[in-house]
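ok trying this again, last paste got cut off
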Amino acid sequence: MNTYFFENSRQFLERLIQDDPSNTSLVQAYTRLIEKYADLEISQFEQNTSFNKDFNKNQTEITKNQQTTQSEIIKKQVEKGVMPAQSSLQQLGL
């Protein structure tokens, strides 16, 4: 359900309820519409939260892999007696 459809449906039902406030089926339909829209928004929020968690986890793994690779390069350079490049040390915060 998109927002445009929801807003039009909500406004339509509100007008009908104003014209006939004693019609309980209209009030029930209005209530169901609000509940369904709330369920949809909660579902979208949960999906966004899940996406963000996965994204952050992936970014952490990428950074970890980059730092591990860089530290391995520096380690090999030191083992061979080569001075590591200054930029390599800066990337590791040294």
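PB: full thing came through this time. The chain has a mean pLDDT of 84.
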